[in-house]
Hints:
The protein is α/β, with parallel strands linked by helices. It contains 15 helices and 17 strands. It is globular, with a radius of gyration of 21 Å.
Amino acid sequence: MSRTDAILARLSRLHPKLIDLSLDRLLPLLTALGNPHQHLPPTIHVAGTNAKGSTIAYLRAFLEAAGQRVHVYNSPHLVRFNERIRLAGTLVGTRRLNAILERVEEVNAGRPITFFEVTTAAAFVLFAETPADYLLLETGMGGTYDTTNVVEHPLGTIITPVDFDHQGFLGNSLAEIAANKAGILKRGSLSVMGLQRPEGRAVLERAAHRLGIRPLWQGEDFHGDEQDGRLVYQDEHGLLDLPPPALLGRHQFDNAALAIAAARQFGLPIDEAAFATGLRKVVWPARMMPLPGPLRDRLGPGAELWLDGGHNPHGAAALAHTIAELEASRPAPLILIMGMMNNRDPADFLKPLAGMVQEVLGLTIPGEENAHSAAEIAAAAERVGFAARPMPSLGRALARAAHTPGARVLICGSLYLAGDVLAKNRTPPD
Length: 430
């Protein structure tokens, strides 16, 4: 076990629950650390169900193309914890990460606190101590009681599309979930909203109105569409004719448009050339990502290997559209290699993919005790009409997929599985 892993293991034992939404434990720790959350660069706070990470990836790409220094906070990581904290454009180094984690551990002095709370406190210290022009801050879960929601005066807030996910923590109705996400809205801060379902939008509108906020709404105040292979964006400031996003899928035009609208609404120093450069260079691992390397080499000639960390029905619907686009370009039998955590329903994830899949190969995510077993995933797939079978390992699943000439193989269902795959492929992010 590395020193970092040993520190993180100690921190994970400070609270009996992995998730316990509250700010009561974090605020005293931040006070003891000198209130780093009050000394951050201008902060853009992002909540929502899907597209949070992609929206932040676009904003980072735009800002860096414009010569700005950007901090980023994302979760979860895929391979190494360092991926969660980017300081002025570079992932935090391991020595510096270890030092700040141990410093925060010492200040906390063994008091109960969740893993996400104590590691977010460490990130805030790093962000406050390292000069940068902006901080892009992603919520972990929800909004109102999310650990990141201690930032009182963000430059702006973004709420990406809200859908069903984490119902056990955020509520069983779309209205409840949207109300939780709306907790990041702050009086005096600007806000931009992604495409919303009517029930969720009504809640977000009421929350914004109470705070005196007039958000920009995607599909109403701004539009971004694919036209002749390019992204055509329009708002009250005019039209931009831009290259397509480097990230694959029709939904990425929506995500890129949301980030462009936020950049213009929040007054970020980004011109049309920087938008174009950012769109060409944006990177967001494990989102419909082609996967060259040793794992791809296990498949036969002409086969494709893709990786996607989407794990809820909304993400699966976007995935289905992307697969349909690939199929129109090159028809190929589709084989899913799928693992999923047991707080999600594999059948709900698979339903948007009905009629597209030749076979589902179920996997148990290695090292995750709260994952569905391979047999459970295969059984759930069969219940909703898919041909499926459990597989004992990723290697065996790839070997079975290799028996289908020219297959399009997609590994999907969980970011935890995606991280394991990237590690096995020896292609960790950055």
